[in-house]
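Chapter review: from sequence to fold.
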Amino acid sequence: MFGQDADPEEPGLNSIQKNSIYLEILGNAAVWSANYDRIIPFNNKVAMFLRLGGNEYHGVDTDKLSFNILGATGILYGGPGGFLDTGIGYTHFTGYPDRLIIATAGYRFQGPKGLIFRATPMYIYNTEKGDVFGNCFWFGLSFGYSF
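The token string follows.
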């Protein structure tokens, strides 16, 4: 009434949960991974995210375990629930010589009650020239919870 009441915050990146945990099928770690990411908003439409994840994998021809680590950073654009999710990542396989560099551009849904869903097409570059996996287009699906 007197012009002192602030407008309610417009829904967007400033009003969503900033921490997420999720399971990714296929994706950056090739088979599956468990992940944590943190969103750092620049404004209500653009934010940066930092991601850390990993998995355990062993091939069909060995019982040796390989613990694999992935990291990524990227930009989220949009809101309030759906976002363009772009990024660059790196996956290190401890039991194999593979080192993957991944470029992604996909869709991220992050609901107000915590549901997170990501559909992420990507290109994977394998630094090991003679390997059979990598240097190809790939895809990841993620499901999880934000808090």
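Two observations follow directly from the output. The first strand starts at residue 19 and ends at 26. The mean pLDDT is 89.
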